[in-house]
Write a sequence for this structure.
């Protein structure tokens, strides 16, 4: 049985919430909201060329590609993903050779010079990260003062701007409710979204294996060992 999250709507929609959070932490693009992100998340040519070699950006793309491949397999089980990959790769190789890949201003013959530029970009990126770390250490006291100044009596989660999210949004997503799972060693999950998602995560799957029970969709919403073994 193919399992989809609530956001995926049985394969009709993508669930890119986690990738959106990772995107916001890249510090490569202007801050945006989730709806705007959904309209342009696949427009990779907008990334600054030197920033494309950033390790965080590479990691983000890897996670995104892994999810999209998995979703494609689940949502379109009759399609052959390997053949689709081969077709896309062939189209890309042709554009790369002709120098027509959007966002890459070189031809196949100048690939060697691009490798040099890539190494230079990585070096510049490393220097930039070192400088950021130094600045962060230098401003540590100021940051501590700013953190202490944040008024957050309800202990609300922080948004991308470092400030507590609105209380209405907190309650809308059910983040005021904690769900415990005995199978996960008593772990607690804040909000129904995180709770439902955790049934497909490694920690819950490991707990089920320890009980000698397959982690199938039949056991979704089962959180106690007694119910799982019943």
């Amino acid at each position: 049985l193919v399992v989809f999250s609530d956001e995926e709507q049985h394969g009709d929609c993508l669930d890119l919430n986690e990738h959106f959070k990772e995107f916001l932490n890249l510090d490569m693009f202007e801050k945006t909201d989730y709806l705007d992100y959904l309209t342009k998340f696949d427009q990779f040519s907008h990334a600054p060329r030197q920033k494309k070699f950033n390790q965080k950006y590479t990691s983000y793309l890897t996670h995104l590609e892994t999810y999209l491949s998995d979703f494609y397999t689940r949502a379109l089980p009759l399609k052959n993903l390997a053949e689709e990959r081969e077709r896309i790769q062939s189209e890309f190789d042709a554009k790369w050779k002709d120098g027509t890949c959007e966002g890459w201003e070189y031809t196949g013959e100048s690939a060697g010079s691009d490798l040099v530029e890539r190494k230079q970009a990585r070096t510049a990126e490393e220097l930039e990260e070192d400088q950021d770390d130094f600045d962060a250490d230098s401003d540590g006291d100021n940051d501590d003062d700013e953190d202490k100044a944040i008024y957050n009596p309800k202990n609300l989660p922080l948004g991308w701007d470092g400030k507590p999210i609105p209380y209405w949004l907190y309650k809308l997503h059910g983040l005021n409710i904690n769900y415990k799972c005995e199978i996960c060693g008593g772990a607690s999950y804040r909000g129904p979204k995180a709770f439902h998602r955790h049934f497909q995560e490694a920690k819950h799957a490991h707990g089920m294996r320890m009980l000698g029970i397959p982690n199938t969709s039949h056991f979704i919403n089962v959180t106690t060992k007694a119910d799982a073994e019943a």
About this structure: Residues 9-140 form one domain. The chain is about 50% helix and 5% strand. The chain has a mean pLDDT of 78. The two ends are 21 Å apart (CA to CA).
